[in-house]
C-alpha cells in the first residue's frame, strides 16, 4: 500500500514537470519576439524606396506599362544588399496586376515585414494601385 | 481517515497549481508579444512615411485630373478621381483606421476645384486646387493631418514685331512657363500666328528659330506676311506633367 503511494507521487511529479516543460516549450517561440530595430529599419528602407520611385512618377509608369523587368531592376538598385523582397501589385479591386514575379530571391529571410503602399499614376488617365512589398533580411 | 483523504488529494492540488502557473506563463508571454507587436505598428517613422505617401498620392490625383481637364476633359473629373482615391485610402488599416476627406476649391476663379483660363491677354493658366483632412486612429494613436494641393501651370507670352517690307513682319515671341509659380520646363511648345481667321504654325520657310533657355523661358522668331496691322500669336504648351496651357497675345510694334 505504501509502495503504491510512492509510485503515484512520482507519476504526479513527472506529470507536473511535463506540464511545466510543455508550457515553456510552447511559449518559447513567442518569447523570441522579432528584432524591432531590424524590422523598423527594413520598413523604413522599403517605404523610402517606394516613395523615391513614386515621387517622380516612375513607379506608376512602370506598373502602367507592365515593365516588370525594369521595376525589378529599379528595386534591385535601390534596395541594399542582403535584403530579399517580393513585390505584388493589385488594382483598385485588389486583383493581381503583375504578370511576372517581381523579387530578387527565392531564399528565406528573417525579420520579415510587409509594406502596403498606395500608388497613383501621374497621367491624365489616372490608375490606382495597391503595392504589397514583402521584405526580409537575408539569412 | 480524513487525514488520509487530504494526503491522497494533495497530488491533484499540485497538478492544478502547476496548470495555473503554466497558464499564467502562457498569458504573460502572449501579452508581452502583443505589446511588442503594437509597438512595431506605431513606429513614428513608418507613420511619417505613410502620411507622405498619402500626400504624394493626393498630389498625383490632382495633377492627373488637371492634365485630363486641360486635354478637353470634363471639370467633374477631379471630383470623380478624388472620390476613387478617398475610397481606396479609407480601405487601408495598416496603422489603424484611415479617414481621408477632401473639399475642392470653390472660391472664384475656381469652380469644382478647376481654374482654366486660356485668355487673349498674354496669360494662360491651368490649375486644380483641393483641400484634404486625414485622420489616423487606433487604440494608441490619433493623428490628424491637414493639407492642400494646388497644381498650377502658368504661361506668359510676350510678342513684338517689326515691319520689314510691306506686309512682311519679323515677329519675336518670348514664352515663360511656370509650375506653382516656379520656372518649369515644357515638353512641347507650339506657336501659331494669325492671318485673318486662320491660325498658322511658322516653319522653316518662315526662317523659324526656336530657342530653349533651359530655365522655363523660350524664344521664337519668324518672318511672315501678315496683311493686318494687328499681329496676334497663340502659344500652346504642354508641361512635363502633361498639363496643357494656352495663351494668346497681341504683339506690339517696335
CATH class of chain B, please? Mainly Beta
Query: Could you spell the SSE succession of chain A in H and E letters?
Result: HHHHEEEE
* Multimer state: heterodimer
Q: How is the main sheet of chain A built?
A: 4 strands, antiparallel
**How many helical stretches of chain A?**
4
Low-pLDDT stretches of chain A:
none
Low-pLDDT stretches of chain B are none
Helix percentage range of chain A? 40-55%
Q: What is the CATH third-level topology name of chain B?
A: Immunoglobulin-like
Mean pLDDT of chain B equals 88
The helix tally of chain B amounts to 3
Structural class by helix and strand composition of chain B: alpha+beta
- Alpha carbon gyration radius of chain A: 25 Å
Shape of chain A: elongated
By DSSP, the count of extended strands of chain B is 12
Name the beta content range of chain A. 15-25%
CATH homologous superfamily descriptor of chain B? Immunoglobulins
Mean pLDDT of chain A: 84
Largest sheet of chain B: 12 strands, mixed
Cα distance spanning the termini of chain A: 59 Å
Rg from alpha-carbon coordinates of chain B: 33 Å
What's the helix and strand layout?
The complex is a heterodimer of chains A (139) and B (254).
Chain A: H1 2-31, H2 36-55, H3 58-64, H4 68-78, E1 83-90, E2 102-103, E3 109-120, E4 128-138
Antiparallel strand pairs in A: 1-2, 1-4, 3-4
Chain B: H1 2-41, H2 44-70, H3 77-90, E1 97-104, E2 114-118, E3 123-137, E4 142-165, E5 168-179, E6 182-183, E7 186-195, E8 198-200, E9 209-212, E10 217-225, E11 231-239, E12 244-253
Parallel strand pairs in B: 4-12
Antiparallel strand pairs in B: 1-3, 2-3, 3-4, 4-5, 5-6, 5-10, 7-8, 7-11, 9-10, 11-12
Helix pairs in contact in B: 2-3
Amino acid at each position: 500500500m505504501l509502495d503504491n503511494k510512492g509510485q503515484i507521487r512520482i507519476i504526479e511529479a513527472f506529470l507536473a514537470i511535463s506540464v511545466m516543460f510543455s508550457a515553456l516549450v510552447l511559449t518559447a517561440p513567442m518569447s523570441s519576439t522579432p528584432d524591432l530595430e531590424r524590422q523598423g529599419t527594413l520598413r523604413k528602407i522599403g517605404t523610402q524606396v517606394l516613395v523615391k520611385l513614386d515621387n517622380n512618377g516612375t513607379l506608376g509608369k512602370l506598373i502602367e506599362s507592365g515593365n516588370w523587368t525594369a521595376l525589378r531592376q529599379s528595386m534591385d538598385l535601390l534596395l541594399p544588399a542582403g535584403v530579399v523582397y517580393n513585390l505584388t501589385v493589385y488594382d483598385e479591386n485588389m486583383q493581381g496586376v503583375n504578370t511576372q514575379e517581381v523579387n530578387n530571391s527565392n531564399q528565406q529571410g528573417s525579420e520579415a515585414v510587409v509594406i502596403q503602399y498606395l500608388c497613383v499614376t501621374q497621367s491624365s488617365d489616372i490608375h490606382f494601385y495597391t503595392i504589397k512589398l514583402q521584405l526580409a533580411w537575408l539569412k | 481517515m480524513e487525514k488520509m483523504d487530504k494526503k491522497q488529494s494533495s497530488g491533484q492540488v499540485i497538478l492544478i497549481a502547476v496548470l495555473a502557473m503554466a497558464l499564467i506563463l502562457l498569458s504573460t508571454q502572449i501579452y508581452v508579444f502583443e505589446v511588442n507587436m503594437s509597438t512595431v505598428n506605431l513606429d513614428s517613422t513608418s507613420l511619417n512615411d505613410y502620411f507622405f505617401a498619402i500626400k504624394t498620392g493626393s498630389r498625383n490625383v490632382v495633377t492627373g485630373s488637371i492634365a485630363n481637364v486641360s486635354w478637353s476633359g470634363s471639370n467633374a473629373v477631379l471630383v470623380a478621381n478624388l472620390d476613387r482615391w478617398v475610397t481606396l485610402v479609407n480601405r487601408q488599416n495598416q496603422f489603424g483606421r484611415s479617414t481621408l476627406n477632401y473639399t475642392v476649391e470653390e472660391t472664384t476663379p475656381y469652380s469644382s476645384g478647376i481654374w482654366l483660363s486660356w485668355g487673349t491677354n498674354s496669360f494662360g493658366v491651368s490649375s486644380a486646387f483641393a483641400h484634404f483632412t486625414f485622420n489616423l486612429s487606433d487604440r494608441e494613436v490619433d493623428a490628424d493631418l491637414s493639407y492642400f494641393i494646388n497644381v498650377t501651370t502658368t504661361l506668359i507670352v510676350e510678342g513684338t514685331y517689326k515691319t520689314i517690307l510691306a506686309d512682311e513682319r519679323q515677329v519675336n515671341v518670348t514664352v515663360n512657363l511656370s509650375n506653382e509659380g516656379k520656372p518649369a520646363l515644357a515638353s512641347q511648345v507650339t506657336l501659331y500666328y494669325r492671318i485673318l481667321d486662320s491660325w498658322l504654325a511658322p516653319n522653316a520657310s518662315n526662317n523659324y528659330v526656336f530657342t530653349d533657355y533651359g530655365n522655363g523661358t523660350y524664344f521664337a522668331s519668324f518672318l511672315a506676311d501678315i496683311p493686318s496691322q494687328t499681329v496676334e500669336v497663340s502659344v500652346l504648351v504642354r508641361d512635363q506633367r502633361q498639363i496643357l496651357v494656352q495663351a494668346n497675345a497681341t504683339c506690339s510694334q517696335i
